[in-house]
Every structure is written in C-alpha cells, then in structure tokens.
Specification:
34-stranded antiparallel beta sheet; 0% helix; 60% strand; rod-shaped; disordered C terminus
Length: 378
Amino acid sequence: MVGLVLLLSACQISEDSTAKAPVPFKFKQLKLHQNDRSGKKLWDLQSPKASYRINQRIAYIEMPEGLLYRNGQASYRITAKRGTIINDGEQIELINSVKLTTLDYRKITLLAGRAIWKPAENIIDLIDKPQALDPTRTLSAGKARFHINREDLELKQSPRLLIWTKQQKAPELPQLDLLVRTANWNLINGKLSAAGPIKSLQRPQKDQQRFLTAVALEGNTKEEWLDFFPPVVITDPAKKMELKAGLSRWWIKQERITSLDYAEAKLDKLLLKGSKLDLQERNHSIQVGANCVVIQPQQSLKADTCTWNWKTGAILAEGAVELRRNQLNQVTRARQLQGKTGSDGLVVFTAPGERVATQLRLPQAKSPIKNQTPAIQF
C-alpha cells in the first residue's frame, strides 16, 4: 500500500462555482512511500513543491527525490527535475534529467530524459536516450526497462555497449564498441547477454582497428569477460589478418581472446590452423596450442604448438615439428623450428642449435640409351 503525505501551503478555490477546471491545491511538501507486508521499506519519494488536482488524483511535483530499498536497505537514489504522480502513486512519471544511482561500491548510474515508474509492477521504463554507466562501461539504447526487484536492465532498439579496459576518460575512445539487437544486464551479479547479430569494433591500440562479428554473446561484467558465439570472425585489414573461430572468450582486463575450438587465421600469405587459440594483445601474438598447421606457398608445417608475433613477424613452432617443402619433396623434422616473416609475406624457417632430420627425394636419372652396336660374343 502506498502512503501519501501532503503538507498544505496554500489553497486557491475558485469563486465561480461553474468553473470547469478547479484550481489545484498547492503544497510545500509531498511525501510518498511504500512498505512490503513485513513492514520493510520498498521505496519513498518526496518533492519540495507540488500541486494536486483532487478530481483527477494527479499531483505535479518539482525536483522529486527518492530512494529504492533492497531488503530494507537503501540501494538506489532516484532524482529528476519534474514529475507527475497519477492515482496517488499508481504510476509516477519523472521528466528531465532522470537519474538512478547505486548507493554501494558498484558506482552504476542509469540516465534518461523521461521515466515511467509503476511501483505495483516493480518496473521503471526509461525513455529518451536511456543509458547505464559504470567506471568502465556505457550501455545505451532506444529504450530500456529496469526491473527493480531483481535489478535487471533490458535494452532494446539498437543497444550499444562501450567498454574501456581501464576507465572511461574523455576523449579516449573505448577499446570495444559493440552493436547488438537486444541486451540484458543484471546489475547484481553482472551477467550480461545479447542477441545478435553482434557487430563490434575493437581498438587494441589508438591507431589500430579490428572488427569482430558473432551470432550472440554472454558475459559477466564483474568477472570481466565476454563469450562470443560462433561463427566468430575477427578481421584486421591493416595487418591483412582474418581469423575464424568457434566459441571465443574475450578477457577484458587481460586483453586476450581465447578459444578451445578449431580456428583458422589468414596472416597475409600464411594460413594458420589448429585449436586452443590464444590471442594476446599485450604480447602482439597469436598462439595455436594444439594441432598447429602452417600453410604457405610451396611448403607446410605441422607442430604441437605455434606462436606468431604480428609485430616482429617471428614464428615459433614446437613439439614434433614437421616441415614439408614441395621442392625435392623435402621433409625436415625437429623438436623446434623458428621462422621469420619476410617483406614478401612468406616465412623462412631455421633451427639454430637444434638437431634436425632432413629427408630428400631426388629425381631418378633417366635410363641410358641402349647401344646399337652388336653385342660381342665369347
């Protein structure tokens, strides 16, 4: 049940009893509150200035401020510049600079130009450029709905997710810019899910752009990871790189992308294949942790693991390495081979300090022409 307290400041009553629109009562303070069945507070709202139309049961308020409670403890502060209370609290419309802010360590803020609050349904619809912000993220959409009791935020109409690996700081651009179809974010446990198609722009470095597409995503903002559902495609046009992978996890703080599934990476003229992918931005490297295959014109390599550094062009192949060259059907086996990408985009492999076994298949010599001289007989 909603409690309503009105403190009367002045009341103007029309002298014309035939007036169709009675002058509203004006109050110097309005207070609304609601408790649950056990008596614990659910929310309260107050305004320093209000006018009330008795026949319509509508109150117009200025500078409203209130609190939302969770388990009897204040969890959010809600403010706006103006508001309308319909049917003595059945619906509350907040207008201009609507703001909901967490009162704990999370530092989450919900913003909107307008909000429609329905206390009985435990929902607040955020309208007119709604946003959700915390120190490293901004979520925006055409419209949003906040479920008060479970602190779940639904985002619709072209949701956009911006993520900074450290902290939002203007004018620094976000490291990840995501566009999705719909999104849900739970502000208590940090669970995030989004329906695709997922289109994202990554900025690993200030002067670098990488594009990622996926079918959908799930993640956790508390644990700082996002799972992209296949097919996952990552492209870096400047580095002539295209990577196709299965389920892939982006570790936000570590600046890593990992996938246990089979993956293929085109690196200029190279094709790198295998599983247990690990893309480490800080080390400028891509590692294939199992069943590595490197294919380039005129030769191919197999190994247990391979690591390619796109900054230096170095490749390290380890474990049961087998290098096959088309020329002379050459096969080289070693425990480890190192490679270096040349200006032509091809890798030259060497084995400094390693024992290698090389097998060559030389072309057979042509059979000699038979002598036409009659054989000598004894």
